[in-house]
Design brief:
With 235 residues, this protein is mainly beta. It is 3% helix and 54% strand. Strand 5 and strand 6 form a beta hairpin. The N and C termini lie far apart (107 Å). It comes from Mola mola (Ocean sunfish).
């Protein structure tokens, strides 16, 4: 009895196996060794197109567009609330190269929300910030800080509009004191009023106006410039 002939069929090469195993197009859920899972589209073995990623350790989830393995395009990032066992949106908007980039809304808490422009995970450009205490800032941002032109409405009724630097009032600006019925207009430095004018503004509607109204200032006949320096500290 003759022995069987050895097979002449070669096993697939490692390169061919790698190519055959690469993910491309729409796939069912794919699990990674660390327990994370992704459901969606692929290209050349990378998340690419539309898909949903869930991270096992944190329970957070991203649902949206991908480009070569990173969040890119429009998408929503959510976190898992352990007690409620449900997801809460943290950021909804545009992404680039895995970072918040473009226009989007970020929820710091239920009452503290930023809506506006982002550059590489930082508030940058024009945006509106609703603070937890009720204050609202609308204006320019640079590297996650109010910087440039902007206005803020305080929960007590006061408001400021003008220039900002590194999160503080700096440069030309106006501040309205609702309780006193006065408005200060002039220069600011690191949040403090330096040189400007203080006038009555809505004095009749103010809760606690000063006893006497501010007298009008008249220029001399030579039209010399006048600078009224504030000797009382403005807050």
């Amino acid at each position: 009895m003759s022995s069987p002939k050895p097979s002449t069929k070669k096993a697939p090469s490692k390169a061919l196996l790698d190519k055959m195993s690469q993910k491309c197009g729409l796939r069912n859920t794919v699990y990674t060794p660390d327990g994370n899972k992704y459901t969606g589209e692929w290209l050349d073995n990378q998340k690419h197109g539309t898909g949903t990623q869930v991270w096992k350790d944190s329970g957070s989830m991203y649902n949206g567009e991908w480009k070569y393995g990173k969040c890119d395009g429009f998408g929503t990032f959510s976190v898992l609330l352990p007690d409620a066992k449900e997801y809460a949106t943290k950021y909804c908007g545009e992404w680039q190269n895995g970072k918040k980039h473009g226009y989007g809304t970020y929820y710091y808490s239920c009452s503290e929300v930023y809506e506006g422009e982002w550059i590489e995970d930082q508030r940058c450009g024009w945006g509106v910030m609703h603070y937890e205490n009720g204050d609202i800032y609308e204006g320019e941002w640079v590297e996650d800080t109010n910087h440039g032109q902007g206005s803020i409405s305080y929960v007590n009724g006061n408001w400021y509009e003008g220039t900002w630097r590194d999160g503080k009032r700096n440069g030309e600006g106006k501040f309205y004191y609702s309780d006193k019925g006065q408005i200060y207009e002039g220069l600011w430095e690191d949040g403090e009023a330096k040189c400007g004018t203080l006038t009555d503004f809505g004095r009749d509607e103010a809760a606690t106006p000063p006893e006497y109204p501010i007298p009008q200032v008249h220029l001399n006949i030579f039209n010399m410039p006048v600078c009224l320096v504030m000797f009382q500290q403005l807050k």
